[in-house]
Amino acid sequence: LWQMRLLLSGGAPGTFSRYRRAYRELYGEDVDIRELYIACEGCYGAQLDERRAWCPMYDHLFFEVQTLGGVKLLHEMLPGEIGSLIVSTPEFPRYRTGDLILAFESPYFRCIGRENTRLAPFTFGPLTGRTPLKAEKKRLPAFR
After folding, report:
1. What is the C-alpha separation between 142 and 91, in angstroms, rounded?
2. Most exposed residue of 8, 29, 41, 69, measured as fewest CB within 10 angstroms of its CB?
3. Reduced to 3 states, what is the DSSP secondary structure of residue 111?
4. How far is CA 24 from CA 16, 64, 121, 127, in A?
């Protein structure tokens, strides 16, 4: 009856790595599993390939980040740079989410935790792909 080809999951960090085996057992080995980076305002981004990172959806959202060097556009971040996400929608102009974003080579990003919480930042594991990224080799600074 079902010929599942793609499984999209949001709301559970690390879906790609944590639940991959279970999803494949349920839906078959041929199903592609992709994570969505979502919030109340909508879908911020999606995992487009095997790399464990998301690409922004610029269709209805405007992204900025507060970095140590000031506010800049999300796509202007350099690999290894970290910033606090600011999202603009028609309902919420310049809404600071508190999500900490780590930039990889364009257009890949990862949410590594939340700002101003007592919880340690969570990570999704190393980005995979043909070219190892210099940002992955550096140790991330601690956020407190």
Report:
1. 33
2. 29
3. strand
4. 11, 36, 28, 21
Burial (CB count within 10 angstroms: exposed 0-12, middle 13-18, buried 19+), residue 10: middle
pLDDT (tens digit per residue) in 41-92: 778 899 888 888 899 988 888 999 999 889 999 999 999 999 999 999 888 8
Provide φ and ψ at 97, rounded to 5°. Answer: -80, -30
52 exposure class (CB count in 10 Å sphere: 0-12, 13-18, 19+)? buried
Nearest Cα to 44, choosing from 32, 52, 36? Answer: 36
- Positive or negative, the CA dihedral 64, 78, 38, 5 is positive
**Alpha helices of 12-90 — where are they, by DSSP H?**
15-18, 20-27
The DSSP call for residue 48 is: -
- Taking the model in full, what pTM does it have? 0.71
Longest dimension (CA), the chain: 54
Question: Which tokens go with 112?
Answer: 């590594």
